[in-house]
From TrEMBL:
<feature type="domain" description="FAD-binding PCMH-type">
    <location>
        <begin position="115"/>
        <end position="295"/>
    </location>
</feature>
<dbReference type="InterPro" id="IPR012951">
    <property type="entry name" value="BBE"/>
</dbReference>
<dbReference type="GO" id="GO:0071949">
    <property type="term" value="F:FAD binding"/>
</dbReference>
<feature type="signal peptide">
    <location>
        <begin position="1"/>
        <end position="19"/>
    </location>
</feature>
<dbReference type="InterPro" id="IPR016169">
    <property type="entry name" value="FAD-bd_PCMH_sub2"/>
</dbReference>
<keyword id="KW-0560">Oxidoreductase</keyword>
<comment type="similarity">
    <text>Belongs to the oxygen-dependent FAD-linked oxidoreductase family.</text>
</comment>
<dbReference type="GO" id="GO:0016491">
    <property type="term" value="F:oxidoreductase activity"/>
</dbReference>
<keyword id="KW-0732">Signal</keyword>
<dbReference type="InterPro" id="IPR050432">
    <property type="entry name" value="FAD-linked_Oxidoreductases_BP"/>
</dbReference>
<dbReference type="Pfam" id="PF01565">
    <property type="entry name" value="FAD_binding_4"/>
</dbReference>
<dbReference type="InterPro" id="IPR016166">
    <property type="entry name" value="FAD-bd_PCMH"/>
</dbReference>
<dbReference type="InterPro" id="IPR036318">
    <property type="entry name" value="FAD-bd_PCMH-like_sf"/>
</dbReference>
<dbReference type="InterPro" id="IPR006094">
    <property type="entry name" value="Oxid_FAD_bind_N"/>
</dbReference>
<protein>
    <recommendedName>
        <fullName>FAD-binding PCMH-type domain-containing protein</fullName>
    </recommendedName>
</protein>
<dbReference type="Pfam" id="PF08031">
    <property type="entry name" value="BBE"/>
</dbReference>
Length: 566
């Protein structure tokens, strides 16, 4: 959460007062206005050295502010603010507005100043490894904060940073297919993708060859970046494990300027860490090679009902009946995506690879019978699809920009006793009745499903039955104080979930980014080993995020300056 002093400073910027004059500390990263900040001539020379690919940040909301106000352009920004594509195609914008701290907010008054604020100051539109190498070297030389950005689809704030220079990997789109990828432990179909390739592009390429790849539900997510480096859950996780379980090789640019290969036989420690140990931490991933699997038919089911006209107890009886059938559904190797609040419930979708429609209908029947007995009107669809891509083509994700998220991993053992089930239902009802919208994912990415990989995926994933995420939406006009207050509520919602979880584990890509127990929550027993690997491969600590391994060695001051922690 943001300290009040930071909130007040940001608001002062938006109201027109200048930045605070804090004493320069040589060990802290530089800010514009510091005597050490590069001059225009130095920036121009650096731009020439990276083939003219340096982009000075113009915040995406700038058309909504004087002196560059443009009514039509501003309306376009506002209309598309919650659409991922607009931010993904922008060199410095990020999808999660929480981490923009209202910098150049398109919904702020036209006369309020437009500050770069929490956006990066510059981005390098990378096309060759040398562009990354030179950018890191430049950031080191001038003590500038360094960031890696692809799509900006990151709910943990790692794709941006005040006064940073970033490498923008988004246009690295090359893919290479292997019918038989040779390696000591695997010889089969595989796909090599560069860092800018997104999930939908991975899926489309695999489908051409009659195969599928373990990728994310959201088609816009960058595949090789934070997704796979954070472990990567998928609609296929109950049958094939996590995305990181299928990595064969990474090409990596280190912060010391090397271009290296990381695999089970080369630089094994780096390979282990990149396969689930968190993104933006150990090195800059240039490409990844992953296993491809035979495509398969898939059954999909969707159910929706509302609480309108129902008592609270009846509504929760319907949700409880759903929770009762989940273990039987997951026993088939299926995946469940349910969202609900006090007003509506959606199971959208259930995805069951290689499972027949009659079998899924049979498992769902006790729940549907309960809905009928309760007199609840619901919509229900059950469809059979020939392949994976056809199944996920219309996957329905809610707004990408405008909510705060928490969440914990809940173990299968919790749901195996009536006591555990009752405690879970009590916590779930309290969270929803407390005003949260819940994202309730059912999956079992066990070691068996992933073929017993040796990687840094959080151990709690292997016994997980749920990823349970409380969510609070915020209005575009909410103040920073309101947003901060909601973040405190998210943390409070997480407390009962933490008690229900086996070891307090959470998904490093989708959870409370301000969790106080983040080391254990996101890395568990792997943390110390990951820290040693980071220190080996990033000795100058160029790669930083508050919740990344080694993140506690730094802190941000009131003006956004990154400094060594005391």
């Amino acid at each position: 959460m943001w300290p009040v002093s930071l909130l007040l400073w940001i608001q002062a910027l938006l109201m027109g007062s200048g930045p605070m004059n804090l004493p320069e500390v040589p060990s802290c990263r530089a800010l514009p206005g510091d005597t050490t900040w590069p001059t225009t001539g130095i920036w121009d020379a650096f731009n020439a050295s990276v083939d003219g690919r340096l982009i000075k940040t113009t915040p995406i909301g700038s058309p909504c502010h004087d002196p560059h106000y443009d009514f039509e352009a501003c309306e376009y920004v506002k209309k598309n603010w919650h659409e991922g594509d607009m931010h993904i195609s922008h060199p410095s914008s990020v999808i999660d507005a929480v981490f923009l701290n209202k910098s150049c907010d398109p919904f702020a008054p036209r006369h309020s100043p437009c500050y770069v604020g929490s956006y990066v100051q510059y981005a390098v539109n990378v096309s060759e490894p040398i562009h990354v190498i030179k950018t890191v070297k430049f950031a080191k030389e001038y003590n500038i904060r360094f960031v890696v950005k692809n799509t900006g689809h990151d709910y943990m704030g790692r794709s941006t940073g005040t006064a940073a220079i970033s490498v923008w990997m988004h246009h690295l789109k090359r893919m290479e297919w292997f019918d038989n990828y040779p390696s000591p432990d695997y010889n089969g179909a595989a796909l090599k993708v560069q860092a800018g390739v997104q999930g939908a592009e991975v899926n489309a390429e695999a489908t051409k060859h009659g195969r599928l790849i373990v990728a994310g539900e959201c088609p816009t997510v960058g595949f090789a970046g934070g997704y796979i480096q954070g472990g990567g859950h998928s609609v296929l996780s109950s049958v094939l494990g996590m995305a990181a379980d299928h990595t064969l090789e990474f090409e990596v640019i280190t912060t010391t300027g090397e271009f290296v290969t990381a695999s089970p036989t080369q630089n094994q420690d780096l390979y282990w860490a990149l396969s689930g140990g968190g993104g933006g931490t150990y090195g800059i991933v240039w490409s990844v090679v992953v296993k491809a699997h035979p495509d398969m038919p898939i059954t999909k089911a969707v159910i929706y009902f509302s609480s309108e006209g129902l008592s609270r107890d009846v509504y929760w009886e319907a949700i409880t009946a759903y929770q009762r059938v989940i273990p039987a559904i997951l026993n088939t190797g299926a995946f469940l995506d349910a969202t609900y609040d006090a007003a509506k419930f959606r199971m959208a979708p259930l995805i069951a690879p290689n499972v027949s429609s009659p079998r899924i209908h049979s498992i769902l029947s006790p729940w549907l019978d309960t809905l009928d007995a309760l007199g609840i009107q619901y919509s229900f669809s059950l469809t059979r699809h020939a392949n994976y891509v056809e199944t996920v083509a219309d996957y329905d994700n809610f707004d990408l920009n405008g909510y705060q998220i928490g969440g914990r991993l809940l173990p299968r053992s919790l749901f195996e006793t009536e006591k555990g089930f009752s405690e879970f239902m009590g916590a779930a009802r309290d969270i929803v009745e407390g005003g949260a919208y819940v994202w309730d994912i059912g999956l079992r990415p066990s070691l068996e499903a992933g073929k017993y990989p040796n990687n840094a995926v959080h151990p709690e994933w292997r016994s997980a039955e749920r990823m349970y995420n409380p969510i609070l939406f915020f209005d575009d006009h909410d103040t920073l104080e309101q947003i901060s207050a909601d973040q405190k509520r998210i943390s409070q919602f997480d407390e009962p979930l933490k008690k229900l979880s086996a070891g307090g584990g959470a998904y490093v890509n989708e959870a409370d980014p301000f969790a106080r127990d983040w080391k254990n929550a996101f890395y568990g027993k792997n943390y110390d080993r990951l820290l040693a690997i980071k220190d080996k491969w990033d000795p100058d600590q160029m790669m930083y995020a508050p919740i990344a391994v080694g993140g506690d060695r730094w802190e941000e001051t009131e003006d956004g300056r990154l400094c060594p922690a005391p």
